[in-house]
Design goal:
Blueprint: H1 20-48, H2 54-81, E1 84-86, E2 89-90, H3 98-102, H4 112-131, H5 140-163, H6 168-172, H7 180-198, H8 203-207, H9 214-233, H10 241-269, H11 274-288, H12 297-307, H13 310-321, H14 323-327, H15 334-352, H16 355-362, H17 373-378, H18 382-417, H19 424-429, H20 431-435
Antiparallel strand pairs: 1-2
Length: 471
């Protein structure tokens, strides 16, 4: 510490510009988001899949978190938020330099070290969400290559364009409060495209893919829901009134979305599906994300009803009628829960954004930017409202085109080195073929029965409740 420039460290050990409360909240928010991935999605993925894929699915999430962390501090943070070298990209460089990590960040009254950590967990969860579309058949060695390549050549471009103060969409006034575009629409599109390149699961798995532990799945889903307080509450970069509003709107929208999805399941299928309610929870969380701190509570309720019904329709009805959607094997329906819900949230953010709340968040107050269509019409400035809607739609088109292109290129590059999909023999076995380990030990101290003629995780040896993930 004594080697740092004297202007950075007063006698009390902290810079004069640092707000301890904001720094504490930001570190807490980052940790909450990190817990959504590890252990949240690790648990959810490991329990929502067929038992023979439990271990591999959970480990795909854990590996992605670790791999993104190394890439992020090594070069990706500066590519996302550093000095601009292209209209859509920053200059790659390390984010571990001693003087840099203690310097004040580009927004907020806390050091760069806190900002790097906060943005890291968002990048990591994006890759883990992509994994949800690829569970049950992707070659793990291909996944090991896919993660660093995609976070480097896709995520950084999207983050810089939309979140960096030098980004072209940021300058146009795109509203993406906490990642509806950068994280959810990106992961939904990238997961769908990657699933197309990787190919489908084994025929037997695709026909019947029962969760191995629904109670444990709910535990992972609970961590995901509660962790969203940091996901949306941390983006004002301050322990502010706007952060409080964002957290409240997040939970209101999510609850309404879950209940709407549940009601539709009862109405059309006759039973209250637990997995369906979990999907409704996720679509609510995703939909409110781009608008959490810039809409009023009444708008959050409406967004919840729409996020619980429109993705429900695309998943339960449209999916069965579309040849393209049926052809691509999206294991956990990431396209519907993240691409559809993320796009919906981005559009509704442009529709319901309150100019006064946008001023609290962006610090910009003019007659052209950050005016939702509803407020533009009622305040006599419809042109500003329509302009905001056009910017939101432009952002959706950009994210879709970017991820279709970059994800395809990354998959093609990986395919040159290793196969994207496991062999048919490995697909029949699952975890034991991929890792030499199984999730559930049945004999002794985790040992398999040596006389067994097939893996313990086969359908013949162990049968779990036949609850299907309806996609």
């Amino acid at each position: 510490m004594s080697h740092l420039p004297s202007n950075l460290l007063p006698v009390d050990g902290s810079p004069e510009w640092m707000n301890r409360g904001d720094n504490t909240w930001q570190l807490t928010s980052a940790t909450l988001v990190g817990l959504q991935s590890v252990p949240g999605l690790v648990i959810l993925y490991g329990s929502i899949v067929k038992k023979k894929w439990a271990l591999n699915s959970a480990f795909m999430a854990l590996y992605a978190f670790a791999a993104v962390l190394v890439c992020w501090v090594g070069w990706c943070y500066k590519m996302s938020f550093g000095e601009r070298i292209l209209p859509f990209l920053g200059q790659p460089n390390t984010a571990l330099d001693r003087e840099f990590v203690f310097r004040k960040t580009f927004a907020g009254e806390f050091p760069n070290a806190t900002m790097v950590y906060f943005q890291l967990v968002f990048a990591a969860i994006t890759l883990i969400l992509i994994a949800g579309a690829l569970l049950g058949r992707m070659n793990f060695y291909a996944w090991m290559l896919f993660v660093p390549l995609w976070v480097t050549f896709s995520y950084t471009i999207c983050a810089f364009s939309i979140w960096s103060t030098d980004g072209w969409l940021f300058k146009m006034g795109l509203i993406d409060y906490s990642g509806g575009f950068v994280i959810h629409l990106s992961s939904g599109v990238a997961g769908f495209v990657a699933a197309c390149w990787v190919g489908p699961r084994a025929v037997k798995d695709r026909e019947r893919f029962p969760p191995n532990n629904i109670l444990l799945m709910l535990a992972g889903a609970g961590l995901l829901w509660m962790g969203w307080s940091g996901f949306n509450g941390g983006d004002p970069y301050a322990a502010s009134i706007d952060a409080s509003l964002a957290v409240l709107n997040t939970h209101v929208c999510t609850a309404m979305s879950l209940l709407t999805w549940l009601f539709l399941d009862i109405l059309f299928f006759g039973k209250p599906s637990v997995i369906g309610a979990t999907q409704g929870m996720i679509t609510g969380l995703v939909c409110i994300t781009p608008a959490a701190g810039v809409v009023q509570g009444w708008a959050a309720i409406i967004m919840g009803m729409m996020s619980g019904s429109i993705p429900w329709y695309t998943m339960m009805v449209l999916h069965k009628e579309s040849k393209l959607l049926k052809q691509v094997d999206d294991t956990l329906a990431v396209f519907h829960t993240h691409a559809v819900a993320g796009s919906l949230g981005g559009i509704l953010a442009g529709f319901f954004a309150d100019p006064k709340l946008c001023y609290l968040f962006y610090g910009v107050e003019d007659s052209l930017h950050y005016t939702g269509l509803v407020y533009g019409i009622f305040n006599g400035r419809p042109n500003a409202g329509f302009r905001q809607m056009m910017v939101q739609l432009l952002g959706i088109v950009f994210v879709i085109l970017l991820n279709v292109t970059t994800t395809s290129i990354v998959c093609l590059l990986v395919r040159i080195i290793v196969p994207l999909r496991l062999s048919e023999d490995d697909l029949q076995v699952g975890d034991e073929a991929v890792h030499g380990e199984v999730a559930y030990a049945l004999w002794g101290d985790g040992e398999k029965l040596e006389t067994a003629t097939e893996p313990l995780t086969s359908e013949k040896n162990l049968e779990w409740p036949t609850v299907e993930l309806r996609t």
